[in-house]
Write a structure and sequence with these properties.
Helix content is 44%, strand content 13%. It is an alpha/beta fold. A hairpin with a 2-residue loop joins strand 8 and strand 9. Helix 1 runs parallel beside helix 6, helix 3 packs parallel to helix 5 and helix 8 crosses helix 10.
Length: 268
């Protein structure tokens, strides 16, 4: 068995339906991964199955109580009977990225993902049970279910056997700090737009170089923040340095018409 992911949530049917579908669902059926979703309300001690209450100190909304969460978390830990790493999906945590995904997938076999709701979660549960908080970005959702499913999908697809080959994810955007190159399929021409000739050439070396150049150029154009962080020292060989130089030259040349157009507009 590979990775096991348990989601603690008020909406387990929502999460499980997504995790049982497509590639992740097929991988679970084949035993490469294991996913479970747990209803927090099943661990309350009141007839109303209430999991929230008003916050001390006043304020709007309600806070998820620590005891139902703790009871649910304990039950999951007992079921796993192995070391676990608990993540709370929260807009207050560091932003999730591919590097963090690689670290989690490589470091832990059993993950518990806790989904918050309402105005937040009682801090005492976080202090006692949660190992780290993770955010999906600088925005707020109504609950942690969508981030939990996104994180689970991202991690599970890297587990050996889930995808046909390792290159299925190592060639994609963000794996090496760059964006992925453009992709094309049939037909060769569509609405007057043609597939780049190099992709039809059958020359694997030229295709690889083109894809690398396009990856460089796309990252420079769309995510200058990523390009600024990209470690150019990892481009070692003379050939790779030549490909990088070509990409830089092509990118600079593509910027010239835009710069000239701006100058013409200012002159008018």
């Amino acid at each position: 068995m590979g990775m096991r992911v348990d989601i603690v949530t008020l909406f387990p049917e929502m999460c499980q339906q997504v995790l049982d579908a497509s590639i992740i669902g097929r991988a679970a059926k084949r035993g490469y991964i294991e996913t479970h979703c747990h209803q927090i309300r099943d661990y309350t001690l009141n007839k109303q199955k209430q999991t929230d209450d008003y916050p001390y100190g006043g304020g709007r909304g309600a806070i998820m109580q620590c005891d139902p969460l703790w009871r649910c978390w304990c039950a999951v830990c007992d079921e796993i009977s192995a070391p676990v790493h608990t993540v709370f999906l929260s807009p207050c945590g560091p932003t999730f990225d591919q590097a963090k995904a690689r670290q989690l997938e490589a470091s832990y076999d059993n993950l518990i993902l806790v989904c918050g709701h309402y105005e937040g979660v009682d801090q005492r549960f976080l202090d006692e049970c949660v190992d780290e908080e993770i955010s999906m970005g600088d925005f707020v959702l109504t609950g942690g279910e969508i981030p939990a499913m996104a994180l689970a999908d991202c991690l599970c697809r890297m587990v050996p056997g889930v995808l046909p080959e390792e290159s299925c994810y190592t060639d994609e955007s963000h794996w090496n700090g760059l964006l992925e190159y453009p992709q094309y399929s049939r037909p060769e021409e569509w609405h007057g737009r043609k597939v780049p000739e190099v992709l039809l050439s059958g020359h694997h070396g030229n295709v690889a170089d083109w894809r690398t150049r396009e990856s460089y150029k796309r990252t420079m154009a769309r995510r200058p923040d990523l390009w600024e962080k990209f470690d150019l020292t990892q481009v070692h060989s003379r050939h790779d340095k030549k490909v990088l130089a070509q990409a830089l030259a092509e990118y600079e040349a593509a910027q010239q018409p835009a710069a000239e157009a701006d100058t013409d507009t200012e002159a008018e």
